[in-house]
Specification:
alpha+beta; 3 domains; ten-stranded antiparallel sheet; seven-stranded antiparallel sheet
Length: 308
């Protein structure tokens, strides 16, 4: 047998041995000690529709999700934006789902190793603002063999593992939670006006091609979400006023991001509620405080839609 063939066989045998060695370390040594799962939900399903406050804390950062009528707000430091309802609903669905929980430790001694301590865990709290905290869970490391997440709750010292389907929600990045569309508050666009470079043009439902143009406008998305303090002292280079069929309208001011070469434009937005908007909706609109990035492509696309 040639030397190269012998070496390949040796490498293969060593590789198999390394895998078996890893399993011997990380898995129990007999079937009787394997953790048996029990069924439970992280959040009692009966509280699914009464949760109106969610907080996520990770690496010293925190994001709060607060419900106001039909809307959710994402709040991080001095920045507030409407949250994507579908994502928050998915989080609540995941929290109330009956899942497998595997008990892996009965006390606090494993918390540090599993990153389940007060300082190193990712914490998520579900609550009712005016009433009570429903539950608080601590998430830690991911088991590289089982692909399950370590977790514990505020009511017990025991540590558990569960399916990794919760991982995507364990983020304090407001860009994950915020709605991406620029005109998200406009449900049925009836009229929109652009003022730029001394020119003003209005598009309305009277225009023959308004349906296609309104669709294109409402599909436009912003980039990264910033605080309002990122806006400089220069006046806006363009402004848009858009009106919805229910009487609600928004005013958007665009600014050239001259102080940061990595950002093309930033915009701020003011929402003016309609007479039929609920008090909770008006509160959500008024609480918004942010500046969103817009690329050169998006800015030029707006001008193109208006024919300017």
């Amino acid at each position: 047998m040639k030397v190269k063939q012998i070496n390949r066989i040796l490498y293969f045998v060593c590789g198999i041995g390394a895998i078996l060695f890893a399993f011997a370390i990380f898995l129990p040594k007999n079937g009787k000690s394997l953790p048996k799962p029990f069924k439970s939900a992280l959040l009692n399903p009966q509280y699914r529709n009464t949760v109106d406050s969610i907080s996520i804390e990770k690496d010293g950062k925190k994001i709060a999700l607060e419900k106001s009528g039909e809307f959710w707000l994402a709040i991080s430091d001095d920045t507030t934006i409407l949250a994507e309802n579908k994502i928050v609903d998915s989080l609540l669905d995941e929290a109330t789902k009956i899942r497998n929980l595997y008990k892996i430790s009965a006390g606090k001694t494993s918390w540090e190793q599993l990153s389940l301590g007060e300082e190193n865990a990712t914490k998520i709290t579900f609550a009712k603002k005016s009433d009570r905290v429903y539950t608080k869970s601590y998430f830690g490391v991911q088991n590289s063999i089982t692909n399950r997440l370590a977790l514990r709750t505020i009511t017990t010292d025991s540590a558990y593992e569960t399916e990794n389907s919760f991982q995507q929600f364990l983020t304090t990045d407001i860009n994950y939670w915020g709605i991406g569309e620029i005109f998200t508050e406009i449900e049925n666009l009836t009229q929109v006006t652009l003022s730029i470079e001394g020119k003003t043009k209005t598009l309305s439902s009277d225009n023959e091609d308004f349906g296609a143009k309104s669709h294109d406008l409402l599909s436009l998305r912003h980039g990264k979400i910033n605080s309002e303090s990122s806006i400089g002292t220069e006046p806006p280079v363009a402004s848009i006023t858009a009106q919805s069929g229910n009487g609600r309208y928004v005013k958007i001011d665009f600014y050239k991001a001259s102080d940061n070469p990595e950002i093309d434009y930033l915009y701020t937005k003011k929402v003016y509620p309609s007479k039929i908007d609920s008090t909770e909706a008006q509160f959500a609109f008024n609480q918004q405080k942010n500046a969103c990035e817009v690329s050169n492509w998006t800015f030029n696309r707006i001008k193109e839609i208006f024919g300017l």
